[in-house]
Amino acid sequence: xxxxxxxxxxxxxxxxxxxxxxxxxxxxxxxxxxxxxxxxxxxxxxxxxxxxxxxxxxxxxxxxxxxxxxxxxxxxxxxxxxxxxxxxxxxxxxxxxxxxxxxxxxxxxxxxxxxxxxxxxxxxxxxxxxxxxxxxxxxxxxxxxxxxxxxxxxxxxxxxxxxxxxxxxxxxxxxxxxxxxxxxxxxxxxxxxxxxxxxxxxxxxxxxxxxxxxxxxxxxxxxxxxxxxxxxxxxxxxxxxxxxxxxxxxxxxxxxxxxxxxxxxxxxxxxxxxxxxxxxxxxxxxxxxxxxxxxxxxxxxxxxxxxxxxxxxxxxxxxxxxxxxxxxxx
Length: 330
Ligand code: GLV
Prior knowledge:
Elements: E1 7-10, H1 16-23, E2 28-31, H2 40-48, E3 52-55, H3 63-68, E4 74-77, H4 87-92, E5 97-98, H5 105-120, H6 123-131, E6 152-156, H7 160-170, E7 175-179, E8 194-195, H8 198-204, E9 207-210, H9 224-228, E10 235-238, H10 247-255, E11 263-266, E12 286-288, H11 297-315
Parallel strand pairs: 1-2, 1-3, 3-4, 4-5, 6-7, 6-9, 7-8, 9-10, 10-11, 11-12
Helix pairs in contact: 1-11, 5-7
The structure holds glyoxylic acid (GLV).
């Protein structure tokens, strides 16, 4: 039996509240409920007769996928970043692409602080030290770290997340430097933050935290020259996208003597999950997390609900609450 109800392919089990909202709608729901993403061929097949997609950053929605799915007229990406979606092709085809910024700002900033502190104060090493029975006594030179309090924090990318990190760091009396394309003054409460050039920021910061989206302009924006200009003892945190960093070069920089940066904390890597033979995995001066900066329970629920809001608006032909390619409405 054929139906005119739009077919929606959801590429993973997202918050049940959001799934239930979709079940109550007049749509045919096709849900990929595996823990792993649909393999590319499966994604292609299931998208081929879909009218709309709710997808994740693990799904590559490129031109060839869109060619194979000519009925898709709405894409709702449950992420702030949209580097997994070919936005230019979607826009050229009049397909609105929804994303979920805003609702994940505070969780992501919280986690960034967790990494800044974990890296600065060697929390992961400390845990291993205790479990490995190396803790013999209180020691005046044991596991010395770097205080965030009073340090200079360089924030690359001063959008909502960069600013939310800055606000938290102000509570640590950190001096904030930032780079930003726009020369708009910093918002109320962050007036003492200083906009500087990237070379300046790298030279002057004790901690550097990355908060730019991955675009052709930001891909590999930190490489050999940039690492060499960082301070001895500096700490680099990335909760944005792995490919903003030239990753093999970072591995060499961390392994150098002295290492520059001295320590890194990465929530994101160029290939995810990080391949088991990646040289980064052999380095002691690195903390890794599996891309979980937005993984607060309420945040993930809000992201799923916003993804559904975007999808439903798109299906109704209305403007999405959060559209990554608003040019489609021009
Ligand atoms: C997560 O990385 C996101 O872009 O939402």
